[in-house]
Amino acid sequence: MRSASFRVKWSRSWPATSKTCSWCSEQLPSRAPPLRAGSPDLCWDTPQPLGRFSVVKRCDHRGTKRTVAVKHVNKKLMRRDQVTQELNLLQRLQHPHIVSLIDTYETPSSYALVLEMADQGRLLDYIVSWGNLTEEKVAGYLRNVLEALHYLHNCRIVHLDVKPENLLVSHTASGQPIVKLSDFGDAVQLNSAHYVHPLLGSPEFASPELVLGEPVSLTSDLWSLGVVTYVLLSGASPFLDESAEETCLNICRLDFSFPRDYFQGVSQGARDFVCLLLKTDPGRRPPASLCLQEPWLQAGQGHGQAEGCLDTSRLISFIDRRKHQTDARPIGGVRSFIHSRIQPRLLSHGNPAPGLQFLD
């Protein structure tokens, strides 16, 4: 339930009437909250970068002492209608594994979204801090994300930015970690089969269809989760190369492998789960609902999960490298580069075996 201290306030032009959401069959406000002028009565903490267009600040309400996260979107980098689109989506979402929107307001330089605070921070930072990572824990984190994606996809919403930085951790009252999906700045409702999403910043977690400028689908998120799974298991990135162009080429070629040094002690079941999601053809990737039924993901039942601790030493350098990849500029020339380097049959969603090289 939303705190009264941060209750959304509706203006006359944004009536607080309700209707049933055609996506999720829930009672919803008829519109997203207006971006009110001025700031709530908040005490500010040090801002941290969040994505390509914004920073996030940890804040405490002076009256209630409730801690929240305030996402400030720079007006110079994002238009008002783009922010409104994110608000429209967030207002329709209520799920334990999705960071919830509490309030909104506007300052002279930014649009501000007051969000639920994930008290343990980003998932990779949490893993490095606590240590003792096992396949069972990885499977638990992935189940949380898949439950969020299953909910979104039932609403015909595709997130399009599933990556480690957008996976946050909170502790339950009993101290158990739960993962929450955040940052819906790229998310869209798929009303048709022909939405093409721009490729911005690092393509490391982007699906082949996004890289190639083809229509995205709900399973575009499952590809990204496959890359996240690879990172959690090994501390390495499956497709990363020396340039964005070469990285995109690796993605479209499905050019990845499981190096022995990185996957020492990782079970075959875990590797099979990665391969299940990393398929070039979006139609061959299973939906989130089927992924949740995979034996390797089942809690506490030991379906092929390795018992030892995973090596997390590489995650530290992975985190440090990713801190510097917040470029908002489009990656120019990538698609023409890829078309000049890849055989035409691959662009028709062929699925080469991992690590298979094509002729240049």
UniProtKB/TrEMBL annotation:
Source taxon at top rank: Eukaryota
Gene Ontology terms for molecular function: ATP binding; protein serine/threonine kinase activity
The keyword Signal is annotated on this UniProt entry: no
Transmembrane parts of this sequence: none
Domain Protein kinase: 42-297
GO biological process, one term: positive regulation of apoptotic process
Keyword Nucleotide-binding: yes
Cited Pfam families: Pkinase
Coiled-coil portions: none
Gene Ontology terms: cellular component: nucleus
Keywords: ATP-binding, Kinase, Nucleotide-binding, Serine/threonine-protein kinase, Transferase
Record PANTHER family: SERINE/THREONINE-PROTEIN KINASE 17, TRIO RHO GUANINE NUCLEOTIDE EXCHANGE FACTOR
Protein name in the entry: Protein kinase domain-containing protein
Organism: Amphilophus citrinellus (Midas cichlid)
